[in-house]
Amino acid sequence: MTRVLLIAPQWIGDAVMAQPLVALLADRGASITALGLPGVAPVLRAMPGVDEVIEAPFAHGRLDLALRRRLAAQLRGRGFERAYVLGNNVKSRLVPWLARIPRRIGHLGEARGLLLTDRVGPAGGQAIKAAEPMALSPVSCRLPRTAQGHRPDMRAHYAALAQIAADEAVPEPVLSVAPHVADAARQCFGLPTRWIALCPGAEYGPAKQWPTAHYAALAALAQQAGYAVALLGAPRDRAVGAEIASAAPGSANLCGSTRMEEAIALLATCSGAVSNDSGLMHIAAALGRPTLGLYGSTDPRHTPPAAHRSATLWLQLDCSPCFERTCPFGHLNCLRQITPRMAWDELGRLMAAESASAG
Fold first, then answer.
1. pLDDT 10s digits, 284-316
2. Most CB atoms closer than 10 Å: which of 167, 171, 341, 358?
3. Upstream peptide bond of 211 is cis (omega within 30 degrees of 0)
4. Distance CA 163, CA 155 (A)
5. Is CATH 3.30.420.40 the classification given to domain 179-358?
6. Per-residue confidence at 243, pLDDT binned at 50, 70, 90?
7. How many CA atoms lie within 13 A of 157 on its CB side?
8. How large is the average pLDDT for residues 318-331?
9. Considering only CA atoms, which of 303, 337, 356, 260 is closest in space to residue 13?
């Protein structure tokens, strides 16, 4: 059995999209230890194929060389044969290099792959197939652009490190929560069995955030259909959650009230989820819940939700994707023109499809 150290990405969504790489390595008999930031660790613990999770409390933007040396010293005698480095910066390669792991595999990234033994090019060095969620194209949209110049599908980008064959499909990201753990979380937060999760936050910036008024209108539509509504997000999302809950009375604002492991467990129980392009969207989709991702400044072909029971709404206007944190033109039409009714109708289709398959 090959002992593998996985250096996880620092963002939650990216960590979820790395699960196909974990699955490919586990299928080959690897024993996988994942090293990640505390905020990402609960996601790693929910990943099939990860045997152990080590938390690395590195400060954002800092080298933390002393801490990296200590971690490397702890890992040095554990017999790791390979390290898969999913970050693109030199800092992410320091621990496996200092731990003297013989093979250190990663993308070229910064400094042309410095400290790596196996380097994969920007496009993975090969064409890799990956399933995509259904992307909706409202009639006002132009036809999809050509693939030239697009950022790669991140699932395939990470899976390329496993050196799979060019015609081999990349598996979908999967997360798993024990049913009794998920149900206990739902009951702890006072949610019924029929409830909709709304995830209005996006750490990257407001150009990824569907308007709060739209979320409130969507919450009202869900309540009219007999669903409870809960808002999930980080502490920084409390204010926007409170605004939505105020405009849609009866909605539970849980933004900032859950630890990440609790949010994961809750999402495992929801009837459906609607989210900006965020980590919670990726978690809900990887848990197999009917999930609708709302895209504005970003591209669902680059960071798609797992395709189990998901879809995306993306208008693909002339100005999108811009990948900016704030709208360069100040109108945010790429998200404002996605109406609450459009979102509710599509989520309803996803939930109906799940009910039909279960029946």
1. 999 999 999 999 888 888 999 998 999 999 988
2. 171
3. no
4. 13
5. no
6. very high
7. 24
8. 80
9. 303
Domain ranges of the chain: 3-125+154-169, 179-358
Contacts for 18 with CB less than 8 Å, ≥ 6 apart: 6, 8, 9, 86, 158, 173
Amino acid at 179: P
Contact indicator for 44, 36 with CB cutoff of 8 Å: yes
Coil vs helix vs strand at 83: strand
Percent of the chain with pLDDT over 70: 91
Quick check: helix, strand or coil at residue 114?
coil
- Per-residue model confidence (pLDDT) at position 121: 77
What Å distances lie between residue 164 and 16, 82, 124, 150, 295, CA to CA?
19, 16, 10, 22, 30
Q: Are 3-125+154-169 and 179-358 the same fold in CATH?
A: yes
> Which residues face 198 on adjacent strands?
231, 274
Nearest 5 degrees, angle CA 352-CA 356-CA 358?
A: 115
Question: What DSSP letter does each residue of 274-330 carry, written as one string?
Answer: EEESSHHHHHHHHTT--EEEEESSS-TTTSPPPSSSEEEEE---TT-----SS-TTS
pLDDT confidence tier of residue 126, bands split at 50, 70 and 90:
very low
Q: What is the pTM of this model?
A: 0.90
Task: Label residue 15 by pLDDT band (50, 70, 90).
Answer: very high
